[in-house]
Amino acid sequence: MLCPYCSVEMEKGFIQSPHELLWTKEPVWSFWKRSRRSLPKGSVVLGEARFFASSSVTAWLCRKCRKILIDPTDGAGL
């Protein structure tokens, strides 16, 4: 995949976490498992953590301009 910012070839990899991966407009701090209904409106779940398994989503890294692209449908199936 070519970087949409600088047109250099990007590297395929993964972003991983022992917790679910979220995109939100504001930080959401909680130590407890959140339900999707408790997330702020417009939140996107990028990867769901499962029992004994971390969340993971495919990501593309551009080493030249240090941008990372994520397909949000890859980890959670919005």
Based on the model shown, name its key terms.
78 residues; mainly beta; three-stranded antiparallel β-sheet; two-stranded antiparallel sheet; 5 strands; 33% strand
| Shape label | globular
Task: Profile the largest sheet.
Answer: 3 strands, antiparallel
Counting DSSP H or I runs of 4 or more residues, the number of helices is 1
Q: Please, what is the average pLDDT? A: 82
Structural class: mainly beta
What is the terminal separation in angstroms?
Answer: 23 Å
**Spatial extent as radius of gyration:** 14 Å
What proportion of the residues form beta strands (DSSP E)? Answer: 25-35%
How many domain modules? 1
Instruction: Compute the number of strand runs.
Output: 5
Q: Secondary-structure element order, as H and E?
A: EEEEEH
* Share of helix, binned: under 10%
Q: Which regions are unreliable across 5 or more consecutive residues at pLDDT < 50?
A: none
Strand order of the largest sheet: 1-4-5
